[in-house]
Amino acid sequence: MKLTESKLREMIREELLNEAASSYKKVFDYDTHDPSQACRSFSSLFDGADCGYSESGDSYGWNDDTNWLKATAEYHKEMFKIVDGYITAEKKAMTFWKTQEKIFKKWRKTDGSKWGS
C-alpha cells in the first residue's frame, strides 16, 4: 500500500486526537453511567475534594432516564475540565527546573558572578 502525504497526515491527526481524548483517562477513572466512580477518582486525585455527588439524591427519581444521562455527561465534562487543568499544571511542575535555571542564569549574568560562587 502506497502511503500518501495526505493519508499520513490523516493518520497522525487521528492519533493525536486519540491521545488528546484519552489524556485525562490515564489519571482519572470513570464510567459514563456511574458518576460515583468519577466522584471517587476525583476525590482521590484531589486529596479528598468533595465532588458533590450523592448516589441516593442524584441517581434516583428521574422521570426520564435520558435527562439523567445528560446530567451525568455534563457532570463528567465539567470534571474533565478540572482534570485537564491538573494534567497541564503537573506537566509544567515537572519541568519547572528548566525555568529556574533560565532565571538564575540570566541574573548570574547580570550580576557578573559565577555559578555556585
Textual characterization of the structure:
The chain is about 70% helix and about 0% strand. With about 120 residues, the chain is an all-alpha fold. The longest helix has 30 residues, at about 65-95. The radius of gyration is 23 Å and the shape is flat. It starts with a helix and ends in a 6-residue tail after the last helix. Residues about 20-25 have low confidence and may be disordered.
| Count of extended strands | 0
Query: How much is the average pLDDT?
Result: 82
* Percent of sequence in beta strands: under 5%
Q: Total helix count?
A: 5
Sheet of most strands: none
Share of helical residues? 55-70%
Uncertain parts? 19-23
This entry's quaternary arrangement is single chain
Order of helices and strands: HHHHH
What is the structure about, briefly put?
The protein is 68% helix and 0% strand. The chain has 117 residues and is an all-alpha fold.
List the helices and strands and how they pair.
Elements: H1 5-22, H2 35-45, H3 55-58, H4 65-94, H5 96-111
Features:
single chain; 117 residues; mainly alpha; 0% strand
